[in-house]
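pinning this so it doesn't scroll away 📌
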Amino acid sequence: MTRVWMSLQTKEKNHYVIRFTAGIAGIILLAFLLVFLCARIMIELDEYKEIVSLLMCIEVTGLIISLSVWLGRTLQRDAMIFYEDPSGRLYVSDVRQYIGYRRGIIGAVQMALLTQRELAGLKKQVERQGGHSDGMTEILKVDVMKEHPGFYSLVCRVKYGEKRTGRRTYILGKGYDNESQLLYVLERKKKWENSVEIEKSRKPIYIFLSFFVFCIFAGLCFCSHPYFARLPQNIYFPSLGCAFAAFCCTIYFTVQYRRGE
């Protein structure tokens, strides 16, 4: 029996371009509106302008980033299709991988339009009884499947083409048609691997060490800053660079750990 899973939006309407452009436009307009409101508030304030402006900047930036991440995950979910052939082999395809990169806003809209066309073609191909796309990646085994608010992270052993194999991480957004059935198939692929003990992740150690190094160099930055002048000022910028690198490593290892990699 052939089974196909795709997001409800892709299955019913496939208005990928509209969702993309509307989402980007909404985020940009919201950003301008929030900046305008913050500017008005700052004009009316008489005291604590520096602290209030800093807090507003952090909050607005965090909100815009959160909305951008949500939109990216939603579009990724709509662009991914899962397919199970009659022999029980599971395939996945993210049609955005077939789209060449284009710069600028116009290029982004063109990429969204091509993605919508690829989705339409792939839907027709995989919905034909007994057929699947040669470009789809076969999921051999699921090593890790973690549930998060709004999505699942999958660490899978996959097969590309006829011979090449590897390990990939997929973000499975919630909102697929017959999602419980898809999760059951993925869980079955995960149970298949129970005979092999999965090595314990060392990411918590890396996270702790990266954060510890970050705290050390952040302390050096504070002590060498001209305002405090506890240490020589010539170590401020090197310490700042090292603190930034350690912070990036902390974020990187944290994301990997949350995904189960």
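📌 and the second one:
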Amino acid sequence: MSVVLPKSTLYQILFALAIGVLYVQSYELTFSVWVLITLVTLKTKYSKDIFQYLLCFIAIFSIATVVLFFHNDYKAYFVIRDITYVIKPILGILIGYQLCEYNFKKAFQTIIFVGVLISIYHLCVLGTAVVFYHVTKVNGLREWGGYFSDYEVYVLILLLFHKKFELGFSKNKLLIFTVIVGFSSFMYLSRTNFIQFVILFLAMKGYFKINKTSITVVSSIIAFTLIGYSTILYINPKRNGPGLEALLYKIKIAPTEPFKTKIDADDWKDFNDNYRSYENIHTVKQVTRKGTPTMLFGEGFGSRIDLKREVWLGDMFLRYISILHNGFMTVFLKSGLLGIAIYLYSIYLLFVRKKSKILQVSNLNLLLLGTGIFLIFSNWVFLGVYNLLDNKSILIGFFICYQEVANKKNKSENLVHE
């Protein structure tokens, strides 16, 4: 007796696979799975809206490809590696968009169930580290459990604003899911995720629309942040300190870490604390030194930055790197200022979504607005949608498709009533 899965269930499994494979932390596996899911779910027609958004990333890819033909000295390994990195957000957007249509009725529930499973897995890993390996320091916990999880923050936001998305869960289930996902999200102890949560929360509350209330709220948060940061400076936490001291130290150096313009490479503390800035400095110097055409169009796929010294990155010492921590700088290296302008335009498209009277659609507009604002920060410190572990591209494609399907259904229902 054969078992036939409903098409919606199959697409839910594919969605869970697309998100879950990222947590294996094998880029080769992730890329392979994403390519396969993209091809399996490929549609024959796409909307103008999603095509316009995809076109931004296709344009960045095309510029880097054209520039590559002017360089015959690049190593094939780095060319292929760059291509997979730059094509990743295209795959993610397509996956989210293609999987949503068949998951429309249980779209948000699918996102949440996958998030809950990931959170449970994360907490089990942390529990194993603490109980069996006596890991208690922040750095150790993050090494075991992972350094961030944007996806779980999105799930937490959906749960907190469950009425706006009409999730339909019982009070007990909502409470259990919120506690699990909330605790797991917190235990990544990621500054980036904390900022992401605040931005998405404010966006969902409508505080990025300029009015008296939003100005008051945002001003209060800024004041609270400054007071909190001043307190941390007064406490003066030390690097690799016990408990939360290591996290406080990371917060202390956060304002300067990606923005410093002068770094003493011979001072190991200054170098390590501000390594992201070190990459940015050498990228700007290298690209601008090669003249106006390179500044405008970049150095193409296969280009690398000379760090002038060997640096321990991941699991090996490297002097030449092709992908940086900074998403904007990576795009600048591959496709120049033109690439950055296009990338910024892709973020702008998330700000100017069409208004709608449909509850979920209008609230997804707020969520996409918050996503766009967060991407500006995320690109500066974590590669944005080009990050190896990024899943925001899937969610963006998913949300855009949900809006389109909801609008179509609403329009057809209105025609029937007329």
